[in-house]
Design brief:
Length: 283
């Protein structure tokens, strides 16, 4: 067994078997289920209205209208969208800060090498963050499918927020199941690279709580700056703010090129900062 595989197994075990990981999973899953419960109440009211009126159809109660990633239509989904960057960082984003503070990282670096330690650490942080953001979307899709009717979205109905220019909008109206599963995969990647931002502060922040809050603070600082200097001064129809990156259907258009560009930039920032702090700076 290579040194890298050994240290990767250790890091993944620590990432997926610590109380913080399960705390984040329970919070995100709880918000997902609560969102489904609130959606259930709305769908039942819509169904009763449809039964009473012969001119109504089931487009307004479609499964793909009430997905957690499509529209923040209830308080639980809005809370998840507001906290997703924190939830992604909670499972294992704090690990390097904690190990640096206790000095335990030195033993692993000496045994496995700085490069292997960094690669394993980043992958473990990525996987734990990705699971925390992807599983709620998958759970929400499965639970909503129990009570929401499957209706192929009709763009002429005017009830769906997905318009031309949004992420894979054509696929949403032709193969919505594929679109939903693709976005669940995207949520995994987005959560992973966001959790990787916890390596950016390195050892400059000595409190794990502040490290967990770093991606959230960075995203919302950028959101405030964009609102102050871009959106309030010119008409912009594209969503550049990373604070809404987890939403498949944000308030403004998110074309695929923009989504992938933001993911790549966030990923490179986390990797570059991690390499500096762990490989070049430490020891």
């Amino acid at each position: 067994m290579s040194v890298f595989i050994r240290v990767l197994k250790v890091e993944l075990w620590k990432a997926l078997h610590n109380p913080m990981f399960w705390t984040a999973i329970l919070i995100s899953a709880g918000l997902s289920v609560l969102s489904s419960f609130e959606s259930y109440q709305m769908v039942q009211e819509l169904k009763e209205r449809i039964i009473r009126s012969p001119f109504q159809n089931y487009q307004g109660a479609s499964l793909f209208l009430f997905l957690l990633c499509v529209a923040a239509i209830n308080s639980s989904s809005r809370l998840f969208i507001a906290l997703w960057a924190i939830l992604a960082a909670i499972p294992y984003g704090w690990s390097f800060c904690r190990e640096k503070k206790t000095g335990s990282y030195l033993q692993e670096m000496i045994r496995s090498g700085r490069t292997n330690y960094f690669r394993a650490k980043y992958i473990a942080v990525f996987v734990s963050g990705g699971l925390t953001t992807a599983l709620p979307f998958l759970l929400n899709l499965m639970v909503n499918a129990l009570f929401c009717p499957y209706v192929l979205p009709d763009p002429a109905a005017g009830t769906y927020p997905v318009m031309n220019g949004w992420f894979l909008s054509k696929l949403f109206y032709t193969h919505p199941w594929s679109w939903a599963l693709i976005w669940i995969g995207m949520a995994f990647v987005i959560g992973g690279v966001t959790a990787g931002l916890c390596l950016v502060p390195g050892s400059t922040i000595r409190f794990a709580t502040l490290v967990i809050l770093f991606p959230y603070a960075l995203f919302y600082l950028l959101d405030v700056l964009l609102n102050a200097f871009v959106y309030n001064r010119m008409v912009v129809s594209t969503m550049f703010s990373p604070a809404y990156l987890i939403m498949a259907v944000p308030p403004s258009a998110n074309p695929p090129w923009l989504v992938f560009t933001e993911i790549i930039v966030i990923c490179l920032l986390g990797i570059a900062a991690g390499r500096y702090w762990i490989i070049r700076h430490e020891l």
